[in-house]
Amino acid sequence: MDTNTVTQAAAQLISTAALAKLGAGLAVGLGTLGSGVGIGIVFGKSIESAARQPEALPLVQRLMFTGFALVEAQALYALLITFLLLAAK
Amino acid sequence: MAEPHVLVHVPIQLFGLNLSITNFVVMLLLAAILTFLFLTGAAWVLRPTGEGRFPNLAESMLEFVRENVSEAFMGQHGAKWFPFVASVFFFILFGNLLGLVPVPGYFHAATSNLNVTSTMAVMVFLVVQGAAIKAHGLKYYLGLLFPRTAPAWLRFSLMPFIELIGIFSKPFSLAVRLFANMSAGHQIILVLLAGDLIGVTYLLQHGLLAKIGAPLPLLFAIVMDAFEIFVAFIQAFIFALLTALYLGEALEESH
């Protein structure tokens, strides 16, 4: 089948604005999966290493906050795409 | 998505660019003035007696930045570049914190605007490239784009493109990380409070259990506001840290 007619038929069923909103929901939903796992790993390893060697706590704390912000940023890249998609018409 | 209220004070159109004085420009000026007053004010208070609580606060924050950011990531160049890194840290910190002042419709975090964070990221990018060229000359780029540690068949075919993407993705990620962190927090609070307003009117028509559950979004919004203060400090620290890291990488002697 010709792709143009398929596209036109699909556009009559679901508008691009609705598809954009669906994509926005999927983007942030799937994007926070990896970030959630990452934050869990960062904090888990930090707590574990602080429990093993309490005198390393200042160093571990500093690295923990650094790692947290960098991992959190990944989920927020997905949130940026969501904002862009929500503004589509 | 809720658009931030941009109030134009002095419309200026120059060479086809919209350079109006808006409330975001006022926020930026306020952040710069606060940075200047905080740091030089601490030095001025310190001068007569050599002690005091306010200079103590400024000194402890500066020491934190120097020890954890400059010295840790830049080694022997840390002392020379510390004023730049500290200025970046304090400007972004005040830019973030001003967004928490509850003046409705006027005060926004200056850094919750993608233009502002992109400008900061482009400035850091130019400073890093300029420092690298000054330290190593133009053959810095030869060493970067054709790294010696790669096998020859990769070194001249694929590595330049990968390294080029790496060079440009760093300021991009700096800008987007700061912008998304600042604007996302405010969006969440807005959604919670707007939803709370709608929810409260609905629930209050439906009995006693609703009256108990209705304030919960408001409490959560208050907790999110406290989290926003934490995020403001963390994001300023991370921006300064990555600036020092990229500078240290660019200035180190050989690959």
Task: Give a brief description.
The complex is a heterodimer of chains A (89) and B (255). Chain A is mainly alpha-helical.
Topology:
The complex is a heterodimer of chains A (89) and B (255).
Chain A: H1 3-13, H2 16-52, H3 57-86
Helix pairs in contact in A: 2-3
Chain B: E1 8-10, E2 13-14, E3 17-18, E4 21-22, H1 23-49, H2 53-74, H3 78-97, H4 114-136, H5 139-145, H6 152-155, H7 159-204, H8 208-213, H9 216-251
Antiparallel strand pairs in B: 1-4, 2-3
Helix pairs in contact in B: 1-2, 1-3, 2-3, 2-9, 3-9, 4-7, 4-9, 7-9
List key phrases describing it.
heterodimer, A: 89 residues, mainly alpha, F1FO ATP Synthase, B: 255 residues, two-stranded antiparallel ribbon, 75% helix
Oligomer: heterodimer
**Cα-based radius of gyration of chain A, to the nearest Å:** 21 Å
Q: Strand-and-helix sequence of chain A, N→C?
A: HHH
Secondary-structure class of chain B? mainly alpha
Name the CATH superfamily classification of chain A.
F1F0 ATP synthase subunit C
Q: How many E strands of chain B?
A: 4
Helix content of chain A: over 70%
Query: What is the name of the CATH class of chain A?
Result: Mainly Alpha
State the helical fraction of chain B. Answer: over 70%
How many extended strands of chain A? 0
Instruction: Describe the largest sheet of chain A.
Output: none
Number of helices of chain B: 9
Beta content of chain A? under 5%
Which structural class is indicated by helix and strand composition of chain A?
A: mainly alpha
Mean pLDDT of chain A: 87
CATH architecture of chain A: Up-down Bundle
General form of chain A: rod-shaped
In round numbers, the mean pLDDT of chain B is 83
The sequence of SSEs of chain B as H and E is EEEEHHHHHHHHH
Termini separation of chain A (Å)?
A: 28 Å
Task: Describe the protein.
- The complex is a heterodimer of chains A (89) and B (255).
- In chain A, α2 runs antiparallel to α3 (57-86).
- Helix content of chain A is 88%, strand content 0%.
- Chain A is mainly alpha-helical and 89 residues long.
- The model of chain A has no long low-confidence stretch (mean pLDDT 87).
- Chain A has one domain: Up-down Bundle (F1FO ATP Synthase).
- Chain A is built from three helices and no strands.
- By secondary structure, chain B is mostly helical.
- Chain B is built from nine helices and four strands, in the order ββββααααααααα.
- Chain B is globular and about 75 Å long.
- Chain B has helices at residues 23-49, 53-74, 78-97, 114-136, 139-145, 152-155, 159-204, 208-213, 216-251; strands spanning 8-10, 13-14, 17-18, 21-22.
- The model of chain B has no long low-confidence stretch (mean pLDDT 83).
- Chain A binds chain B through residues 62, 65-66, 68-70, 72-73, 76-77, 79-80, 83, 86-87, and chain B through 1, 68, 173, 176-177, 179-181, 183-184, 234-235, 237-238, 241.
